[in-house]
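Question (not urgent): is this output format expected?
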Amino acid sequence: MKTKFSAILLAFVAVATLLTSCSKDETVQLPVVAFAKEVYGLDFNNEAVVKVVSTAPFANNQSVDFTVSGGLVEGVDYTLSAKKFTFANGSNEATVVVKFLKSITEDTKLDLTLAPASFATLGLSKASVGVDISNTVIYSFDKENYTMTQSSDVVLQLSKISGAYTTEEALTFEVEVDPSSTAVEGEHFKFSNGKTITIPAGQSKGTLKLDLIKQEAGKEQVVLKLKQVPFILKPGNFDKASVVIFGSLYDKLVGEWKYAAFTNEDWWKTMNNFGVDDLTKLAKGAATDKLVFNEEGLTTALTSDLKNYFRDSKLINLGEVAERLQEEAGYPRVQMLVVKALANVKFSATNVAEREAQIGFRVFTTNDGVETLEVTIFDFEPTDFLKNTYDIYKSFGDSPAMRFAPLRYHFTKVK
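Got this back:
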């Protein structure tokens, strides 16, 4: 009897152990699988990488099915990189790339819903893909109209509705010539480095350069626009840029010009200027001053302070550069012709040091139709005024020293 009772007891313990084991297996918690976030916006490739995550990695390429809804047609409005979210061995992440083929409104969404899985419990099971308003980027050329002399720099800039924006990685946009253009590519102008604008990583602006081939009456306008605009981008003030072919600045210099204004005098007076110079002594022009350009070079007829700098001289064309106008709002970039000309760089009646100096010239027509010559003097070593300012700028190592602290004068064309 004792032996029989022991056998029964052992059998009971075995069954109890088995039942206890089964009970423990039934209470084991399965990994939770869920979308990483609820809303996915498009990137600059019109794509969204939708991610599903798990609280534990999977050992065998487990897959989670999903359904798509929202009224859009696969293959027409969008494509999917896969029909399932598949976890690689040892991974707790799975992705599917959704690419939109057509632009959609802010109200249109593509909804993804995870299907139940036997090996996991669902967490966040629904996500949407579409235009994320908070992620919308504004694109615009920095101005509507540009002038092409020997060349022209066209600037594209990005911003956010809320303000500034910088790229996480370099972005390249293709540009095309709008049919409304009258100038012909390859005949009147060319693209210096291809039809693309690249905005470097960490920046918000990129530049496209055009070069003049020839000027022809009636065929002087180039209209540019982005060829393919990512859906994440929305147009700002100027989604097109008009470039008017003006011709070589060197040729535009020819003629007689009379003095009009010292245009950045107020800028000098309002800037800090280190508080070291008397700005009432700044060199000024007079209404009787004239500059005359011809094929031989520059001839002067000056009675004001300007006679202490300018000399009659032949001109050496150094080419055009893009310079910023510090005195104007937004510091606009303009194309400026730089020449070498004989000048008294001391800008003084009593202290003379003549050498070939770099001088900037820009010719443009004002809104009221006045043809204007802008003269920028940045290669000078003043002794009668700005002496202390010059010494400070010289220590910065720029060449010429006053490159970013010039004197700027306007002259108008004598008819």
